[in-house]
Amino acid sequence: MKWITTKYLQSEFGLSWMDAEKVIGEQITLLRNRLDWRGVLVGCLSLLSLFWVSFGARLVAPSMHGWRLAVLELPGLMIAGLVLFVLPRLLAGESIVSAAAALISRRDPH
To answer: pTM for this structure?
Structure first.
């Protein structure tokens, strides 16, 4: 797992900023729609964090309200943020690099 940035794709493969962002976005979308272990992991963690924020915290401590309940829901919100924004990009690192290499090989036949 490696965090692939737009600058990395620009410097390593000579892609424009728009092409690099397009490659990253396509590969992350493909990862979310896949049914291999990576897609299942992202889906399960998303559902688990959504359940915790919606029902779990209230089931664990039904008498809590207000800021105390918000503090109890905070780990679920943090996991949801990581699952939505960080984990897919980390898991799609290899496919991002291979898609960028394929894009360059289609453009430049040398």
So the answer is: 0.76
